[in-house]
Automatic annotation (TrEMBL):
The lineage of its organism: Bacteria, Pseudomonadati, Pseudomonadota, Betaproteobacteria, Burkholderiales. It comes from the Bacteria. Coiled coil: none annotated. InterPro entries: Cupin_2, RmlC-like_jellyroll, RmlC_Cupin_sf. This is Cupin type-2 domain-containing protein.
Length: 122
């Protein structure tokens, strides 16, 4: 069986690894940080976009609604998400889907920073 974890030798030719760069976008929301992913080069035409954001305990996002569909994957913490005229309690390992033009927002209802990965498409 091959060992795929071996270290490449110094003279090995390695193809560029397709790392998607991330940059922090300034948001004026207390306790919220937003990190956008830059789809460049071969990924520029991808049919989706992604970002991640964090919410400190006791803080929340502003209401958002847009023309795209979106999924949030919660990887840490717990959040209460307002969608469809109701609050929904969502924890790490769960995901939520938002249909186009439906208002939604979240607040961190736990005691650790919430980490959320977002994917959206038309």
């Amino acid at each position: 069986m091959e060992n795929h974890l071996e270290v490449a030798s110094a003279d090995a030719v390695v193809a560029p690894f397709p790392v998607i760069p991330e940059w922090q976008e300034a948001v004026n929301i207390e306790g919220v940080k937003l990190f956008m992913h830059s789809f460049v080069d071969a990924m520029a035409g991808a049919p989706l976009r992604t970002s991640r954001f964090t919410i400190r305990p006791g803080c929340g996002t502003l209401e958002d609604k847009h023309a795209v569909r979106e999924i949030w994957f919660i990887s840490a913490g717990t959040v209460d998400v307002f969608y469809g005229d109701a609050w929904h309690h969502v924890g790490a390992g769960q995901a939520v889907f938002f249909e186009s033009w439906n208002p939604h927002f979240a607040r961190n209802s736990g005691d650790v920073e919430a980490q959320i990965f977002s994917v959206w498409w038309e």
